[in-house]
Here is the input.
Amino acid sequence: MYEQISGNIWRSRALILVFMAFFAGIGYVFARVEDNILILPAAIAFAMLMTVGSYYYSDKIVLGTVGARPADKEEFPHYVNAVEGLALAAGLPAPKTYVIDDPAPNAFATGRDPEHAVICCTTGLLGMMDRTELEGVLAHEMSHVKNYDIRFMMLVAVMVGAIALLADWFWWSGRFGGFRSRDDRDNGQLGMILFLIGLALAILAPISAMLIQAAISRQREYLADASGAMMTRFPDGLANALQKIAADEEPLQSANKATAHLFISNPLREHGGGLNSLFDTHPPIEERIERLRAM
Here is the structure.
């Protein structure tokens, strides 16, 4: 457990450094093309601001992206009380509780650390699960909080989205001239470079995003399943919940590829096969159920 926590903290720091280096590289290209050395420190400063913003506000960004709202205790008493009880049992501060108004059953956790954690469930999941099943799902998410999975997953979601936006910006700037250079020749040169960078990012960004998300070890989900089952001392609760989730084929409307890896089950309802399985962010749900039944 402590190795998992330490590894996630290290990976989060490494991801931040890679992100800053990426923007520094972009700044270097611009500095060379524009012959303006000030562009490089400006790009580094921008990357630092993006990193700080991602660290402190990415949970709000993710919650806004999926259309989540705070869970009212009067409306969802069993949900809020279960989270508070599991947090007490795990020796953690109680995460804030949110809901997504969507019939597809799913849930995720996010935040930068246990003191600033959030657990979010869909109304479909809350209406579908009995008490033991709901506790199994929430214990799984609480394990992500305790293991610091949430920080790494949160940073991945925001940074993948930032790279996708940057790719779009390069593409349109290159096509329509996002900068005015010293003369038409320089402007044409910069426009071509922006266009080529945008084209490369537009092609590589989705592939890179899938590889990064797939690189988030599938064992993380297995570990959260096992840790959650130990927390409730009733593995069948989570196994039954996963069985119900697997039986529901409806995709989560507000989900996207940047946030899909956060959820307990793939919210896009895509099933891997052949080469596609290399990019799966979740292990097969049948295998997860089988492991839980064997505990």
User: Anything to note?
Assistant: DSSP finds ten helices and four strands in the chain.
